[in-house]
Amino acid sequence: MRPESRRIPARTTEALLMLSAILFAKPTFAMGNELARVADTHALLKSPTPVAVKKGVVLHGLDAKMHTAIHKAGRIWMRHGKVLVVTSGLDGRHKKGSLHYAGLAVDLRSRYFAPSICKKVTHELQRSLGGEFQVIREKHHIHVEYDP
Ligand SMILES: [Zn+2]
Questions:
Q1: Ligand 1 centre from 115 Cα, in Å?
Q2: What is the CA(64)–ligand 1 centre distance, in A?
Q3: pLDDT digit string (tens) for 67-116?
């Protein structure tokens, strides 16, 4: 059997697909490194844009609009050299009546951005999502909710 005809385990295939997605999207070495580091501790979403989800975060029950928002955010984060990490969905403790509990809000990692970049990223995401979404820069993350 020729080595290249060996069956590749599903997990490896997924990783390869993810890597090729990144290469197609933007072939930067730094991004590959970043993703490898993130993939160590986070789940990766199947997406043309690399998006990671922090361990313990619940996205099941998330509104489809929020998935779209996550993918748009992923592209913006990537433009700024970071892999987007979703740090909260339907999990966690939020204030009473929070849209998180309705599957209409997510928190996105921002701690790796310098303050000026974080501000820029927030504006870019707000512009990309439009007026039906609210993008709020919090101390440790960027909160995004669908609130038409
Ligand atoms: Zn939030």
A1: 19
A2: 17
A3: 999 999 999 999 999 999 999 999 988 888 999 999 999 999 999 999 99
Cα–Cα distance between 57 and 68 in angstroms, integer? 17
Residue pair 87/54 in contact (Cβ under 8 Å)? The answer is yes
Let me know if 60 is exposed, middle or buried by CB neighbors in 10 A (0-12, 13-18, 19+): exposed
Strands 51-54 and 84-88: parallel
Q: At what angle do helices 115-129 and 64-79 cross, to 10 degrees?
A: 140
Query: Distance, CA 87 to ligand 1 centroid (Å)?
Result: 9
Phi-psi region of 106 (alpha: psi -120 to 50; beta: other; left: phi over 0): beta
**Length of the chain counted residue by residue:** 148
Which tens digits make up the pLDDT trace of 3-29? 554 555 555 545 545 554 544 454 456
Domains by residue range for the chain, with CATH:
3-146 (3.30.1380)
Residue 85 Cα to ligand 1 midpoint, Å, equals 13
Tell me the C-alpha distance between 88 and 6, whole Å.
Answer: 39
